[in-house]
Design a protein that fits this description.
Distance between the termini: 60 Å
Radius of gyration: 21 Å
Order of helices and strands: HHHHH
Helix content: over 70%
Strand content: under 5%
Number of strands: 0
Shape: globular
Number of helices: 5
Largest sheet: none
């Protein structure tokens, strides 16, 4: 494995650890080792990373594949758990979508022109 391959592997591991840490914070919240505010702040940071970084999106994909392989696709897993997981995963993925840019010449352009016309620097 070359130097570039090692760096790519370390970057993948870093992204995976960041995803696992978010779920770890949720798990230890129930035994008092984490605070709700810390969890919310961490997941907001992860949401922004998911929007901006393909590596983070791939890490969440690897996590999803691992959960399916080790838990959800096993015969002992109840269907309700699989259904709830899929709904939560879909909701989280939709929250991480990039916002749509407004069309050129839309209402935001009028807003910006009004705001800039009332802006006096000198």
């Amino acid at each position: 494995m070359g130097d570039a391959g090692k760096r790519r592997h370390l970057k993948e591991q870093q992204q995976d650890i960041e995803v696992y840490l978010g779920f770890y914070l949720i798990a230890v919240f129930f035994i008092g080792w984490s605070h709700f505010l810390a969890i919310m702040l961490y997941w907001q940071q992860q949401r922004v990373r998911y929007m901006l970084s393909n590596e983070t999106q791939l890490a969440f994909g690897r996590f999803n594949t691992m959960v399916h392989a080790k838990v959800l696709d096993k015969p002992f897993c109840p269907g309700i758990i699989r259904t709830v997981y899929e709904k939560i995963a879909a909701q989280m993925a939709s929250m991480g979508q990039r916002p749509e840019a407004p069309a050129a010449g839309g209402e935001n352009q009028g807003f910006m022109q009004k705001a800039m016309s009332s802006c006096n620097i000198f």
